[in-house]
Amino acid sequence: MDDYAPSRYKILEKIGEGVHGCVFKAIDLHRKCPVAIKKVALKNKFGNISLNTLREIKTLQLSKCEYIIDIVDLFPDLIGLSLVLEYMPETLYGKLKNDANPLSRQQVRKFALMMLKGIEYLHKLGIIHRDIKPANLLISETEILKIADFGLARLHFPDEENRLYSPQVSTRWYRAPEILWGSQKYGPPVDMWASGCVVAEMLRGVPLFAGTTDIEQLALVIRTLGTPRLNEWPELTSMPDYNKIRFPNAVGINWDNLFPSCTYATEINLVANLVIYNPKNRLTAEEAIKHEYFQR
Fold first, then answer.
1. Can you give the C-alpha Rg of the chain in angstroms?
2. Which GO terms describe its biological process (predicted)?
3. 33 - beta bridge partners?
4. What is the per-residue pLDDT across 216-233, written as a single tens digit (0 to 9) for each?
5. 104 FRET partner, CA 20 to 30 A, in 74, 92, 122, 157?
6. Which candidate in 131, 159, 214, 256 is catalytic?
């Protein structure tokens, strides 16, 4: 593998593998510091230039925010391109899996605020991430959280109401209900739903909705939130998959029962205002960072 990298980088080990490429830990011999090298294909399986790769590179180059991963360098290799990124030793996913050392309430609040500030920055740039989840939230040695993995990111044009986006995005557990019902007309609120699921997972220690199929995922959401009321979300009936399956009527679960260890109502209130059926009613990232939960 070392042969593919310019002499500036010495690859040490593979540290991750995803849909959009492999990630290696390396040493930047010029700066004498660790970096992450993500190897991505320049062409897709049909032989065309990969839009996912181009979107990821463009997003990283556009983003200059302390809560977004930095791109350091870019070079071609035998399979496509290598993106040189700042090295982050941990992910939020790894921290949540560490049962011996659970997150403190202070850490949860700090990480939630950093994530939301990063999302706010992206949304102001007109970018939807579309795959906010613990595995894509990297954490530095000094506990700074940064959003990574922009393979599914898209520019969003709020003035173009008829623009369609793929419903085959985001990891199932964090997928907004409008996408689960097949909508191709969605926007930044899909990231807000996902962020609410992440905050809930930090508070609970386990995912809020852990479905094994799309139908089970939707069933879990309905069982938890209750059957959506059409007077509160009239657009639901126009979703492509709305009439394809019927779920039993559900009254929903009281939020307090979902978070038995939470002692502050503001924690639950933040989640409850992000994990809402109607995308128009979810907090925006700008509103979320001003929530009273962060004012203490």
1. 20
2. cell division
3. 28
4. 999 999 999 999 999 999
5. 122
6. 131
- Residue 61: name the closest of 127, 132, 136 by CA: 127
Catalytic residue check, 131: yes
110 is in an annotated binding site: no
- Token pair, residue 30, equals 């010029």
CATH number for the domain formed by residue range(s) 90-294? 1.10.510.10
In this predicted model, what pLDDT tens digit does every residue of 162-204 receive, in sequence order? 666 666 666 899 999 999 999 988 999 999 999 999 999 999 9
- Would the CATH topology of 9-86 be identical to that of 90-294? no
Which strands make up the sheet holding 71-76, listed edge to edge? 9-18, 21-28, 33-41, 80-86, 71-76
215 exposure class (CB count in 10 Å sphere: 0-12, 13-18, 19+): middle
Q: What is the CATH number of domain 9-86?
A: 3.30.200.20
